[in-house]
């Protein structure tokens, strides 16, 4: 599922499978992150109204996509359907988003629900969890860069990451968290 790879080097450019390019440049102790979308079709019109804000966090049985509390009107619910929210994006974004959610849901069913062990980890190891976290992070950034979106709060593990244009520096913290996750796995921690 995760065809998007980050390459750790001095100047890396990675195009993902969902029309998004992530460039990470490191020099000494400085990390620079640049992102851009690649329009494969003619651009779709921007949605009207104020920018939308979202939360993306795993919750078995949902699409993981929630409207931010400040965006919800009295006659609306926070939960929303990804198909409705991502209609103005290239089809690859929704397809990858659905595959990402499905991977988590399949793991949850197999490792938690089928075993009735509700304390079991959803992923078989830290590497699988980190790969899933990174794919979700990149999908969340792709959504932020989309039409009519103001921000996304992406939850990886127990950490929230506020993704919004002009705040690309959050990537350094996210990557540090993922390295820490791998180190914990190398030490044999669950």
Q: Describe the biggest sheet?
A: 4 strands, mixed
The end-to-end distance, rounded to whole angstroms, is 23 Å
Order of helices and strands: EEEEEHHHEEH
- Specify the structural class: alpha+beta
The portion of residues assigned to helices is 25-40%
User: How many structural units, i.e. domains?
Assistant: 1
What is the overall silhouette?
Answer: globular
What is the spatial order of strands in the main beta sheet?
5-4-6-7
Q: Give the averaged pLDDT, no decimals.
A: 79
Which parts are unreliable, with pLDDT below 50 for 5 consecutive residues or more? 1-15
- Quote the beta fraction: 15-25%
Radius of gyration: 17 Å
Write down how many β-strands occur, each being a DSSP E stretch of 2 or more residues.
7
In terms of quaternary structure, what is this?
A: single chain
User: DSSP helix count?
Assistant: 4
Topology:
Layout: E1 11-15, E2 20-27, E3 30-37, E4 52-56, E5 65-67, H1 82-85, H2 91-113, H3 126-144, E6 149-156, E7 159-163, H4 170-186
Parallel strand pairs: 4-6
Antiparallel strand pairs: 1-2, 2-3, 4-5, 6-7
Helix pairs in contact: 2-3, 3-4
What does the model show?
The chain is α+β, with helices and mostly antiparallel strands and 190 residues long. The chain has one domain (50-186). 33% of the residues lie in helices and 22% in strands. It has 4 helices and 7 strands; from the N terminus they run E-E-E-E-E-H-H-H-E-E-H. The strands form 2 sheets. A 4-stranded mixed sheet has the order 5-4-6-7, with helices on one face. Helix 2 (91-113) packs antiparallel against helix 3 (126-144) and helix 3 packs antiparallel against helix 4. The longest helix has 23 residues, at 91-113. The two termini are 23 Å apart. Residues 1-15 have low confidence and may be disordered.
């Amino acid at each position: 599922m995760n065809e998007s790879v980050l390459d750790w080097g001095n100047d890396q450019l990675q195009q993902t499978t969902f029309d998004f390019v992530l460039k990470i440049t490191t020099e000494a102790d400085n990390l620079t992150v640049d992102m851009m979308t690649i329009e494969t079709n003619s651009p779709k019109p921007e949605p009207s109204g104020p920018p939308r804000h979202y939360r993306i966090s795993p919750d078995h049985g949902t699409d993981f996509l929630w409207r931010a509390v400040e965006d919800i009107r009295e006659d609306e619910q926070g939960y929303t359907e990804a198909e409705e929210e991502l209609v103005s994006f290239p089809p690859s974004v929704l397809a990858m988003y659905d595959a990402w959610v499905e991977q988590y849901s399949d793991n949850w069913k197999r490792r938690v629900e089928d075993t009735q062990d509700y304390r079991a980890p959803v992923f078989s190891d830290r590497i699988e969890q980190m790969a899933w976290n990174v794919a979700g992070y990149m999908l969340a950034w792709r959504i932020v860069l989309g039409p009519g979106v103001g921000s996304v709060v992406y939850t990886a593990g127990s950490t929230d990451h506020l993704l919004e244009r002009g705040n690309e520096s959050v990537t350094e913290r996210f990557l540090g968290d993922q390295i820490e996750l791998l180190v914990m796995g190398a030490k044999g921690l669950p």
